[in-house]
Design a protein that fits this description.
By secondary structure, this protein is of the alpha+beta class. The protein is about 35% helix and about 20% strand. It contains eight helices and twelve strands. The chain has helices at about 1-20, 45-55, 75-80, 90-110, 125-135, 145-150, 215-220, 230-245; strands spanning about 40-45, 55-60, 115-120, 140-145, 160, 165, 180-185, 190-200, 210-215, 225, 250-255, 260-264. The strands form three sheets. Strands 5-8-3-1-4-10-11-12 form an eight-stranded mixed beta sheet, with helices on both faces. Strand 11 (about 250-255) and strand 12 form a beta hairpin.
Length: about 260
């Protein structure tokens, strides 16, 4: 059983890597980017300190995300894989449901061997993202761009822009890893750009939640933004911590709700 799964993992991973070389309607959108397009990573202060302390970006296992549809097949994908769901004959329906659940279980196992890093694709900061990910004033946003992010990591990664679809009407993919680049339309405000990194199935190195991947932070980071509602003492604390880690980048308090831009 273990040998069969190892073969399935390698086949699915390699198929995904081949798919990522295309840029079609139902393939990963990762071509023709302006490499200077802005990327943002919003986080709380503790995660920011961890980033500096470990000098790494954390790649999270998809099954640890909040959205249960991460890496899921759409209804159209299931139709392609196992046919139309029967509306009669309990025995046939049972067989269909069994095969569907087997696909779901296999996909969940495959998702345990990949990590994802999520970024917001935008040239300017986003009020919605501040509000969504930072429930207090003590938040940080790292500003980077596609070139800086992808080149700051030496490990093998794949990347692309998430496409937002109707999971009842549209196709995602029959490849579990490609499906990570599709989300429900309800999340389109995230305008997400993703990096993924595969575990070594022979010598797994992922922890329970994922794995930290070393990154050249001075290459990665363009600017550091502090939440617009943060108190002055917090901004000064961020500046002090950044200095201790020898990160020589501008620190700005977001001027989202006023007419000034404070640079520290």
């Amino acid at each position: 059983m273990e040998k069969e799964f190892n073969i399935k993992f390698r086949r699915t991973r390699d198929e995904f890597i081949n798919l990522s070389n295309y840029n079609n309607e139902y393939n990963i959108y990762n071509k023709d980017f302006d490499l200077e397009t802005g990327l943002w990573r919003y986080m709380d202060f503790s995660k920011f300190v961890n980033l500096l302390d470990t000098n790494s970006i954390f790649f999270t296992k998809p099954n640890k995300f909040r959205d249960p549809f991460e890496g899921a097949f759409s209804e159209q994908d299931f139709i392609r894989l196992i046919g139309e769901p029967p509306s009669y004959n309990p025995d046939i329906r049972y067989d269909y449901d069994t095969r569907r659940q087997m696909l779901i279980n296999e996909s969940r196992m495959l998702l345990d061997f990949v990590g994802v890093s999520c970024w917001h694709l935008n040239n300017t900061e986003s009020a919605a993202m501040w509000d969504l990910y930072l429930r207090s004033g003590e938040g940080i946003a790292i500003k980077s761009n596609i070139e800086k992010l992808t080149n700051s990591i030496q490990d093998d990664i794949s990347f692309g822009q998430v496409q937002y679809i109707d999971y009842f009407k549209d196709m995602a993919s029959d490849n579990t890893y490609e499906s990570l680049f599709y989300k429900r339309s309800s999340f389109s405000h995230e305008n997400e750009f993703r990096l993924i990194h595969f575990d070594d199935i022979e010598e797994p190195k992922f922890q329970e939640y994922g794995v930290p991947i070393i990154s050249d932070l001075n290459h990665l980071i363009d600017e550091i933004y502090v939440a617009p509602t943060a108190p002055k003492w917090f901004v000064e604390t961020v500046a002090s911590v950044v200095k201790k880690y020898n990160i020589d980048k501008p620190i700005r308090q977001s001027s989202l709700y006023n007419n000034q831009s404070n640079v520290f």
